[in-house]
Amino acid sequence: MSLIYLLDLCAVAVCAITTTLEAHRRELDLFGVLVIAVISGIGGGTVRDILLGRLPVYWIHDPVYVAVGLIAGTATFFLGRRISFPKNFFLIPDAVGLALFTVIGTSVALKLGTPWLIASLMGVITGVFGGVIRDILCNEVPLILRTDIYATASLAGATLFILLEQLEMPHNTAMISAIISIVIIRLAAIRWHIHLPRLRADT
Amino acid sequence: MSLIYLLDLCAVAVCAITTTLEAHRRELDLFGVLVIAVISGIGGGTVRDILLGRLPVYWIHDPVYVAVGLIAGTATFFLGRRISFPKNFFLIPDAVGLALFTVIGTSVALKLGTPWLIASLMGVITGVFGGVIRDILCNEVPLILRTDIYATASLAGATLFILLEQLEMPHNTAMISAIISIVIIRLAAIRWHIHLPRLRADT
Amino acid sequence: MSLIYLLDLCAVAVCAITTTLEAHRRELDLFGVLVIAVISGIGGGTVRDILLGRLPVYWIHDPVYVAVGLIAGTATFFLGRRISFPKNFFLIPDAVGLALFTVIGTSVALKLGTPWLIASLMGVITGVFGGVIRDILCNEVPLILRTDIYATASLAGATLFILLEQLEMPHNTAMISAIISIVIIRLAAIRWHIHLPRLRADT
User: Fold this and answer.
1) What pTM was estimated for this model as a whole?
2) A53/B contact by beta carbon, under 8 A
């Protein structure tokens, strides 16, 4: 569990860093930036825990999660302007974060004995809802409702993970396979502009 | 309870169908449409269960709710464009859905021994909050805050239901009376453009 | 506890009154105004209780909170237009409300044995999240993400309160000191336009 914990904290930090870097186009003060940075990192797991009734939510008795988000966000706020990152620098850590959150969320729900449809949904919620709450706070239509294979990659990975667990593959192997598959689907969707059918106003 | 369960599922399906049909004016892909279709159907009961502490929320161990929302949403997404519905085709099922959700929510809260003011509030929340969350996700001011007698019909029906229960009317008779009164108030408000006093910027 | 309870209800009333007075610039009917008036008053404590797992949330079994919000909101809706308040009339009660909610929220979290970082966060959430939910419902970027020392005053007071409790100052003295410090910081920030560093689009 120790490796998972460390990876989870890394994903929180990545979320906080990317959110702070993107915050330039919004008019926020330091406090506002830190709020959305932390929420991006822990919002998904928070919604999952509330829906599943795992209360108090996971970060209440372990302040390390919030602290990591605050430190990563503050450092990026003050240093982020000096360093210019290549445009796609964060796409890979971002995809890894999505994959980690998804697999952790699915795993938590399965342990509580939820049906597979609900367990995969909990994986997706853990993966994407931090970003959804951030976008709602910033008064934007959440990205996952509009754009390419983001939540879908999460859903595919969650489903694969459940399938592998059903087939009694060792837990760690199932986890790593699902994580890798989410990262690959996500990056492939970005690379080749794959997306789902869309409703258009003129049809 | 079996009839209530079936009606509840019908209301979830109606919510998913009307949300998907209305989604044409928003730029969403299939995934986004399904998210808001399912949330419209189960969001109200979810908020009610969280506030009341009935956790995990009701659909966690019964995936039929989510499944019905997904199937109704997907079918409407692919077939909805071919069929042209009369403009007001869904007003009646929509009003029935509001009525069902309201009465079920009020009933759940009363069973937990909440005061009547809170029980009627839980009825209204169950009735309208699915649509509120959907509108927030789509970055719109929730309809219930702006328009005609929608939440008010829900509130009137919840109050009537509590009153009839106090008067020791048989449970099913009280339920049906409340459901019918909500449908009638809602449809009358649409028909004769009845609305509550409104604040205006110039006063 | 009786004084705290009374002050808490006063803060709910102040929130409902100021929200209703400000609602003129939004196009809401009476129902919509009452919804956001009540949510402003009880939203922060509700989110705190959910995150901490204190369910059902505090107003479920004590309808006085909702009733106070409804009465204050209704009275303001009908009388508010006749009376013209001086522009800054509500700044002081508003700051006192923020201070009260913050200290109550921090105190609740400390009693449950949460770490200090989380307890201060719960204080801030109790203080500001009612307004955040109101702004989200009205489709606006929440004020606390954009403007001057509001949440920061709350955070400073919560931290001071925890510090004084650690130093074993009598509970009531610690509470009053924290409340006064929040009010002073908040009013000083308004008076001298103090604010945190801000990200700008051109940097």
Assistant:
1) 0.92
2) yes
